[in-house]
Each structure stands twice: as structure tokens, then as C-alpha cells.
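User: These chains co-purify. Model them together.
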Amino acid sequence: MAGLSLMPLGFVIFSSAQVPPGEAIDFLVRPRIGELLWNTTRLLVGGVLLSAAIGVGSAWLVVRTDLPKPGLWHGLLCAPLAVPAFVNGFGWVSMTHAVQSFPGAVLVVSLSYYPLVYLPAVAALRRLDSSVEDVAAGLGHRPVSAFFRVVLPAISPAVLGGSLLVGLHLLGEYGALQLLNYPTLTTAILAQYASTFNGPAATLLALVLVAFCLVLLGLELLVRGRRRHARVGAGVTRSPMRHRLGRLRLPSVGALMLVLVLALGIPVLSLTRWMVRGSSTRFPAGDLWASATSTLGLAVLGGALATAAAVPVAWLAVRHRRPLGTLVERSIYPANALPGIVVALALVTISIRVVPALYQTLPVLLLGYAILFLPRAVVSVRSTFELAPPVLEDVARSLGCSGRQVARRVTLPLLLPGLTSGMALVSLAISTELTATLLLAPTGVSTLATDFWQRAASVAYGAAAPYAVLMILLSVPATVLLARAATREAR
Amino acid sequence: MSELRITGLTKSYGATRVLNGVDLTVPVGITSVLGSSGCGKTTLLRIIAGFLDPDAGSVRLGTRALVGDGRTVPAHERHIGYVPQEGALFPHLDVRANIAFGLPRRERRSGKAKVEEMLELVELPAAAASRFPHELSGGQQQRVALARALASDPAVVLLDEPFSSLDASLREDTGRAVARALRARNATPRLVTHDQGEALSLADQVAVMAAGRFLQVATPDELYLSPATPGVAAFVGNAALVQADATGDTATSTLGVVRLRTPMTGPVLLAIRPEQVQVRPAGDQSGPEVGEVLEVSYFGHDATVRTSVGDRGAVVTARVPADVVPAVGSRVSLTVSGSVIAFPAGLT
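Assistant: Joint model of the two components:
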């Protein structure tokens, strides 16, 4: 499993090494590459900062203040998860071309990806014992200074983790940026691939992209450092005290409203508009049905595969804390850092060279999904494994359960919530995945995402809209599940 | 019902020997295993329950070998109830399902009467049956865990430090309830471990453990009145160990001349219990038996006073009524009443 996960990385390094060094250097020092690097870097910095600001700010408002109806706000703030970035980009572009710029790109991707910071921040804030804030107040800190000196450092691991995810997603983002006409390394790789089919140029660009990812991973490790964030001492965690917003109440509600209008309102409005008014709008029920069922099928199959693969990995990591288990667990994370495009390129090339019969078949597509999304499944399965200490299995055995009965009556029921949310996470990601699907899908198989993409890319906005709407509707159940999980795990 | 017999049990983790040739017979009734944490108690219980295999030795229940003779009965066929330190209730099941967990499938369905009977046994209200573990206090969880272990009428019951995770006030309550529940059906061997000399009264037999072996196995009064080693005396009776010179019936120490329970001669180690020591304000009196109060701990009706005595820095603990407690740092004179247990010097 670890070997499979590391395969794409190995492929990129291996095939880049085959390009003659002189040629490679000539290619990499062109001004075009410099421009791509600059574009990618500033998008990364801007997008991560804005997502983190929106995510942490709204999480704090929802969890820690007397905002009216926090439950409703929480649900609404999670909802953009159901709207893929490229649909969001489509919504904006078809409304105004002003977003085809650097600020526009930062705005659109941040509005799509801030939930990746928001969700862990909510969970961390709920877990945080509010007495640390009381102590800070007792030491003479005003609420704002207490937030920056005590609360923010305490939830920083969650915020950092979320920001890392946002960064990795931005590196791999293709659809939204292509629509926004904002060229980055990833869009350039796809363009190269489309024109020369995996020439050395695409591989070299992929190498640069991989280097970017590794730098990002290293940076996160560096910032996180060896800090400890355990709760000290026993005692009852009191339910969080909520700050009174007072005069700031109206502006706070206004700010959240603005986020929602920009992140949800615009794409929904523009989709509706194209559905109603678009000259190319059609409702080809057969096509829609076919691509909805294949999307659903792929999402369920891929989700089940990745979750099943995650169980032994998580088991090794939690129950056998030896070097081998940790190594296996760690080795799957770089794959998550690799954009879909790199994994897809690797699988295309390897399947053509090694087993041509498998090229563009279902197993390779599912394998691609599993490699891409295994880390997400592992993360959620792992956390539930930690809720099922071995002593429970000992007790069950002493009460007369054989090994298989222990698994059925104790271990499995305890793991089930984690398995479900892991599968939801992966299925959600698959049903809105674009780049890897474009490259790996068997001929004749199309998903809602690829169908939407084909039409949107050829400016048939009206024809594209129904696919986007279906995609959003299909994502709703998984999103609801994730929104619930963020508040439940905190208990 | 049959007794549990443990012979020559050894177990090592890497280079650390945790059990060092343990022999113990657990008759029907309650046996307490006393020992500080890390002395091997939990390992012993886990081997008896079948979660761990020993390196050598055997465990027998009556005539049946559980481990030994080259065969091992798997844990789920041993019929040994096990209550781990933290209770370990199944978090996904309510109290009723937890208690009924070990019952055969048919009884699990219709096991209402059984569950109510068990709840009554551990002195919990019948309404608790529909609660989930996270809605119970630590002491209640501990009782449900015991009820779960007792429900299927196991041949042996093992409790691993049942009170260690509870705070002082719960300890007493839960301790009594657990003792009553264990007594109520006293037809099988029950093995309870403790990390301090509490709850001696709970047991019919007490085994004191240190560094992977038993120092003494005896009834509670025997253990208290004639401990086998100074270590046992210090652990069980909270006795202070003071060096002395014995000449027949008496011995001379920094606390003056004390009477010995059994005549001895030569260098000895006295085990002086807190309740044997009388404390009086020293005034300007000086002498060998005058000490300085180091620390005072109140326990409601009385208090214990730790004093340092003599030039060799011996520390003696005395129990005094709450109304005559000396101040920390003040000088007091100590006298020992009654006869004192002594061990030949060199015995540990």
C-alpha cells in the first residue's frame, strides 16, 4: 500500500531523470516558467492567508460568541464544501469577467476552500477549555489580546493543518483557475499534456510542482515544531463561555452574510440564471441520469476502496507504534500532497508501459482515487481507532467472545462512525474530482464533473448548469455528515 | 467451587523481569494483592485472564490447567471475569447492554430480570439501565463494570485496582459497595489488586507483592500483627523503620528504650506504627527523643504528624487527635507505647 502510494512520486523523479540535464535546464529557466512560479506562489500565499482568516474568524464567531442561531450558521458555512471550486469559478466568470485577475483568483479559491480551515477550527475551539481564556482575563488581557495570545496558539495545530490542506488543494487546482484564466503550474501541465501527450515538459513541470508540495509540507512541520498542546491537569471541561458581541453583533452577522453570499449566493444565482435563460440550456434526462449514476458509482466504489485500504494502515499506526507502522503511515501522506494531475500522469504512463490492457480502465481509475484520497480516509479511521482501546477487546474476550465475535460486537461498532465519515469524505472528493478523472476515465465513461467541464470549457454555460446543480445536490448528504462530525467529535 | 492455583509464574518484557517466580493459591473468597504501581500486579492478572502468556509456570483452576502442561486455554474459554482499572465499559452500548454482554444470546434478549438483579447487587438504581457510560460518574462506571463481570457467573473474578481512578470520597463509597457485591456471592475465588494498604478489611487473604514476587501471603490480621519483613510492615501498617540495638526484651533507639514483642539481641530494625507514638510539646526539654515536626496532614477526626528524630534523621509518623496537633517546625517529644515489632538488621 505504501509502495503504491509512493509510486507517483517515484515516477516523477524517475522520468525527470531521463530527460537530458542540459535540455531540462534550458526548459526550466525560460521566463514562462518564472511567470508560472510567481503566479503559483502568490496565489498560494494569498489564498492560504485569506482562507485561514475567513475560516478562523467565522469559526470563532460561531463557537465563541452569542451570535444568534449558531447551528444554522454552522450548517451554512459548511455548505460551500458541496460546491466544487470549478463550479464556483464558473459562477463568478459567467457573472463578471473582472475576476479573471490575481485578486479575483485569490477571492474565488479562498471562498471555495475556507471550509478546510473552518471545520478543524470549529472542532478545536469546542475542545478548548474556556478556562484558559478566563485565566488570561484574570491576568489582565482584553478579549482581543486573549484571543491572539491564548486561543489562537492553542488551536494553531488545527489551523495549520487546515491551511496546509488549502495550500495543497491550491497547488493541484485546475478547473477553477483555467476558467479564471489564471495560469499556474498545474494548468500548464494539463496544457502541455493536451498538446504533446506527456512529453518531457509535462514531467519536468510536475517535478517542480512536487518540489513545491514538499516545501509546503516541510514548512508546516517547521512551523508546527515540537510544541505540545495537551490539556494540563484533570477536571471538568466547562462548556465554552460565549463572548457578548454587543454593538459588534450587526457587523458580525453582516460579515458572515457577505461570506455566504460570495461563496454560495453567486454560484447558485448564476447557475439558476443559466438554467432559466441560457440559450444552450437543455435537460437531456438520459445523459444526466447516466453521468449521475456513474459519478455515484465511482464515488461509492472509490470511497469503499480507500476506506478499506485505510483500516490496516490505521491499525498498524495506532496499535503497533513501531518504526514500521509509523513509516507505512507517513509514506501515504506525500501522495495526498501530490495534485491529481501528477498521480494521473504517473498512472497513465505506467499503465501504458507495464500493463497496456489496463490503460483507461476502471481499476486504474479507482486506484488513482485510492492513492489520492487514502490519507483522508486514514485520518478519520485513525482517530476512531484511538477511541477503541485494546482493553475493551480484552474485556470482551473475558466475557466469552471469540476473536471474530469481538470484532463483530465491539471493534466494528466502535469503528463504524469513523469508517462512515472516512467514506463520506472520500466519496465527496471523488464526486467533484476533475483532473485525474479527465485523464484516467475509461472511454465513454463520464462523470458529472467531466461533463460539466466539457460544456463549460466550450462556453456552453446553459448546457453545463444542470450538471453542476446535480453535482451539488449529490454532495449535500456527505457535507451534512461532515458538518455534524465537526461538532460531534468535540464532545 | 474450585480454587485458583498459580505456580512458578515468570514473565519478562525485554530485559525487565516483571514476574519472578510467583506462587499463589487463591481459595474461594476475596484475596487482595497489595503492591506499589509497577510491581507486576496487572501483569499477573492479565496472565490469569489469558490476555498474556507467561514465560514459564502454570495457572490451574481446580484440576483444570489454564496455562501450563504445554497448553493454553484462550481467554474467551476461561470464564474469568475481568474488571480493568478504568472499568472499560463499551462506549457504544448502554448500561443494560453492557451488563448483558457476556450472557448467551437468548438471555441477552430477555435478560431484563438479570440486569436488574445485577444493578441491585452493585447498588445502582434500576433507572440507570438505559444510561450510556459517558453519562455515569467514575464510581458508577466502576460498579457497572463489576456487574458486567459478575453477570455471567464467572469461575473467578479479577479486579485490577478498582479504586485507583476514583477520588477519596468516592473511594470509600464505591469500595464498600464493591465489597458487599463481592461478598454477596462468595462462592468463587476473587482477586483484587490495590496500590496502597487501603481496604485490608475487604479481603480474606492478603498477598503483598514487590518487584515481581510475593513478600508475604496471610490473613489481614496476621499480616498486620506479624509482618514477615520490614517492607511489609512499612507498606501495610504505614510503620516507620527505625534502627535500634536490642538487648533481650527491650531495644534502645533514638526514641528511647522500647519494649519488643519478641526478645532479640543485636542490631535490629523497629517497625513503629503511627498509633503507637505519643506526641507531647517538648518545651525547653532536650534529649534524644525530641524531634522537629516536618509536616502535618489532617484527616478530619485526627491528623498524622511527620517528625524527624535523632541525629540520623529518622522520620517517624504519629497519629494524634485533631485538637492537640503541634505546629510545623515546633519541637515535640515522642514516646512509644506498647510493644514493637522488630526485625534483625539486614533483612529487607
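Residues 51 and 366 of chain A are 30 Å apart (CA to CA).
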